[in-house]
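Lecture notes, structural biology module. Today: joint structure prediction for complexes of two components.
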Amino acid sequence: MSNGAPHPLSDPPRTWIRRLSTLLFIRPRLMLFLLLTPPLLWLGIIYLGSLVALLVQSFFRLDGFTGMVVREFSLSSYLELTSIPNLEIVFRTTVMATAVTLTSALLALPLGYTMARSTSPRLKGMLYLAVLLPLWSSYIVRVFSWKMILAKEGILNWLVEQVHLKWLLEAILSLPVIGGSSLSFSYLGAFLVFVYIWLPYMILPVNAALERIPQSVLDASNDLGARPWMTFRKVIFPLALPGIVAGSIFTFSLTLGDYIIPGAIGNSSYFIGQAVLAHQGTAGNIPLAAAFTVVPILIMGVYLTLAKRMGAFDAL
Amino acid sequence: MTISQPPAIRLTNLSRHYGDVKAVHQINLEIQDGEFFSLLGPSGSGKTTTLRLIAGFEFPTTGSIALHGQEVADIPPFSRNVHTVFQDYALFPHMTVEQNIAYSLMIKKVAAAERKRRVGEMLEVVRLPGLESRLPSQLSGGQRQRVALARALVDHPRVLLLDEPLGALDLKLRQQMQVELKSLQREVGITFVFVTHDQEEALTMSDRLAVFNEGRIVQVGTPFEVYEQPATRFVAGFVGTSNHFDGPLAEQLTGSAKMFTIRPEKITVSEIGTPSPPGAIQVEGTILNAVYMGMQTRFLVRIGEAAEVTVTQANLHAANRNLEALRNRPVKLSWDPQYNHVIHE
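The predicted structure, tokenised, for the full assembly:
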């Protein structure tokens, strides 16, 4: 480069795009501001805003005489929430959500473990596909297919008859509370469909947590004398726990808020989601509907606080 | 050491194949009780697989593994009295230093007070007292290394396996840990099997070592034997640097066409015409380049048409600052023929 034009120290900003990229590069805060503004607006106004509106609504009351919402501070919806039938709805939903969550976790652990530890990429791919494939089809279609499967004239009943286990199914259906006239009209049926529908949301985070455990850590546990069950209890389970908690946020809150499955499958007793639907729709009691939706939020808040206090997130 | 005592580790015709890949093929090895023994080789040579076979993470395709005379080839790792220090340390991330070290004691249901005492003792041994309640993520690389050592030694295994444990440390810390590991091994008096690809590390630390290449052991011996009398051309090239002579040039230098090797530091570079001690091999050449390396200078010298010889000279006196000017200078190389090592291949 001894002859010819001297090499310029910098390119002069020629186009406005270049000027803009230079500006954004030397002012990282401006960049951050531009990147975060749209999602924060969305979260702040549309998401949190609607939650706040809900919370405010729950403190209004319904005028029993005119059927109009009175926009004054009142605790009457919460008072109504604590009536025995309404508390039964809350209790029923919470028990179902707990059962669904525990069962999903029990099923997700071995499956997530196999997916994470499998050395064959083919098997791994097949398992991922098996977990994700159901999510490709409509939720409503899947719920109603299950109604067909579980119905008295459905394929499950037919299968049970073929293997001469009808007596067993009838014995189970005759159990109090969980039983019913058929699987499609029982809590047991609703439970099965809930687990089917929400299981992928448990498997994926559990698998991600297990995927992060290095093989050498498991080798070290074996090496130091721990048999497989001990390795599971002391190493695998504690390290999978953040994944289980993350998954349980999905399975638990989705079950708490669902109104399709208990309506389509199960006896006619209400779950929280159905109560919300009924109160804001046919009954026009928006304040009580809002108070009902505050319940799952409170339950999740308490649950996550407890999980944190028990050290579920320590391994994160 | 009595002769009748079985060796700490005896591998007999041991093979581990993955399909067509012969990770370890037909190796035979005896490691004595209390030895610091290194498995040295390039990556993929089978040294780590051999270590994993001894630990029990892999099972042999054929052959036998005996620990202190007991056949363990089909015994799982949790039933073998050997512990491993892993390359990435493999500390349990959700446990404190104390819980990590006490893990094997907890499994064996040692009482809590005794556990605490022994963890304290081990932390003294690895010079980390007072760190009991830290999490692994709060430790430096060197500290993690020591915790991994303490965890593996706390329940007195008879054999400790170390899988390139110093690989992730920086040079200074690595040299310090080499010295500490060696004195730790003398202190606890158990067998150490140390996997490394670093030939200098293997030479400085081991009582004996095995050199691996392509799934086989090519030489077993003391560091002196392996360095001074390499069994094959591969060993001569992998452990340190060496020059090879064969054919007419070998015949010209020694009177025999047999292939021999000579280490770079055994050769002296001098001006043409400088007298050499009687009996020395002498040959003239041209300097191709010279590189200053701190404690020594390395010369590449061409002899005749094709042969290139590497020579290192200790910088005993002030080094020649203008190495560039040495290029293409004719020089004389000379060395004592007793350092020629004939290789039979």
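Point to remember: Chain A has a mean pLDDT of 88.
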